[in-house]
Design goal:
It contains 17 helices and eight strands. The protein has 374 residues and is of the alpha/beta class. It folds into two domains: 112 residues; 248 residues, Aldolase class I (TIM Barrel, Alpha-Beta Barrel), CATH 3.20.20. The protein has an eight-stranded parallel β-barrel with strand order 1-2-3-4-5-6-7-8, surrounded by six helices. The longest helix is centred in the first third of the chain and has 28 residues. The relative contact order is 0.11. It binds phosphoenolpyruvate. Phosphoenolpyruvate binds next to strand 8.
Length: 374
């Protein structure tokens, strides 16, 4: 996955106003052929529903070129309208003629919208990733994953859900996620490719089990297992060599925050590891800002604190990778829960969350995803 905007979302740009215009005009034009206010209203509602479904399911799957082709056809059809719509035209003829007017409106509005959007920064992927840590037995993990799959439909398809169970659950959870769009990640990987490293799990192994992501540099690993930037550079290399997208964690502890050193801490954590990536690798990176003082403590950074440091992280990334930094998802982590997710996710540089405790209950995890809908 490239870390920029979700493809479906990107192609939906321009479809929204086009669709709205189409709903109104389609309903009105078709309604114009029908007698009585009730029939006109029914026509508007039906057209709206059909058009929205078409936009969601079909049009957004087209490439930009295909959409252009489709819209050009609509335009040509419109130019042919006078040939179709005569006084003697049949009901079907008039119906067709009015339909093409609708398409033309959709085209014009979509073009204007696209022009406006061209100069705006691209939307980034919205991600809600669950870090299960060393919790749940395998069967419980499978139940949890199934719960997330079952409720996924209630959350906007624009949200990308990732679950990161313990290594021992990966194969079973992968099975439970089959057929859904929920992706799998691991919580760590070895710094070496393979060999005599008792107890370690290689990036190649987790990739073979269906993982797309791997969390690296989590503060618990830095703190309890002495992970340094040197080790993390090796782990990042292993992740990329096996097609995994790292979710690279940065964040300061309480003393550092209180001493006002949080900016310097995250800057160093990025410079020492992320700056070593190639431009291509950087396009496949997710950053998670997790203030250590907020992890598992119930204490959350305020939305403004999160925005302040996320914006700073993006600037540090831009200093090295330029415009590509605008597309890198930066997640917030640290006692994120259903009650505070919406406020934090609403901030410009917050692209979702890395969730610990609240990821252990399917309904809470999903409710956090709903934070994007508010
Ligand atoms: C985490 O450890 O990644 C985390 C964010 O934990 P919690 O949500 O429980 O604070």
């Amino acid at each position: 996955m490239k870390n920029g905007v979700d493809t479906r979302e990107k192609q939906a740009i321009g479809l929204v106003p086009g669709s709205l215009a189409a709903i109104a005009l389609c309903g009105l034009t078709l309604g114009g052929l029908l007698p009585g206010i009730i029939w006109k209203a029914v026509a508007i509602v039906l057209c709206g529903m059909v058009w929205l479904q078409a936009s969601r399911k079909i049009l957004v799957r087209m490439s930009l070129l295909q959409r252009l082709g489709y819209q050009t056809l609509c335009c040509v059809a419109f130019l042919l309208q006078p040939l179709i719509e005569t006084d003697e035209a049949t009901f079907a003829g008039r119906f067709m003629a009015r339909l093409v007017v609708v398409f033309l409106w959709a085209l014009i509005i979509a073009i204007i919208y696209n022009i406006i959007y061209k100069n705006k920064p691209k939307m980034r992927k919205k991600i809600v990733a669950g870090n299960w840590k060393m919790n749940t037995l395998p069967a419980e993990g499978v139940e949890l994953a199934k719960g997330v799959v079952a409720g996924r439909g209630e959350v906007c398809s624009c949200v990308n859900f990732i679950v990161c169970p313990p290594f021992t659950h990966l194969a079973m959870v992968a099975e439970a996620l089959k057929g859904s769009d929920i992706e799998l990640g691991a919580q760590n990987c070895a710094a070496e490719a393979k060999g005599a490293y008792t107890g370690e799990v290689a990036a190649q192994m987790i990739a073979a089990l269906g993982c797309k992501y791997v969390i690296l540099g989590h503060s618990e690993r830095r703190q309890y297992y002495g992970e340094t930037s040197e080790t993390l550079n090796k782990k990042m290399a292993q992740a990329y060599a096996n097609g995994l997208t790292p979710i690279y964690c940065v964040g300061e502890n309480l003393d550092e925050r209180e001493a006002g050193k949080h900016f310097d801490v995250v800057k160093a954590q990025i410079e020492e590891v992320v700056y070593n990536l190639t431009e291509e690798q950087f396009k496949n990176l997710v950053i998670a800002y997790e203030p250590v003082w907020a992890i598992g403590t119930g204490k959350t950074a305020t939305a403004d604190q999160a925005q302040e440091i996320h914006a700073y992280i993006r600037k540090v990334l831009a200093d090295k990778f330029g415009a590509a930094a605008a597309e890198c998802p930066i997640l917030y982590g640290g006692s994120c829960k259903p009650s505070n997710a919406a406020e934090i996710f609403a901030k410009e540089d917050v692209d979702g969350g890395l969730i610990g405790g609240a990821a252990l209950k399917a309904e809470d995890f999903l409710a956090i995803g709903k934070g994007f809908q508010k």
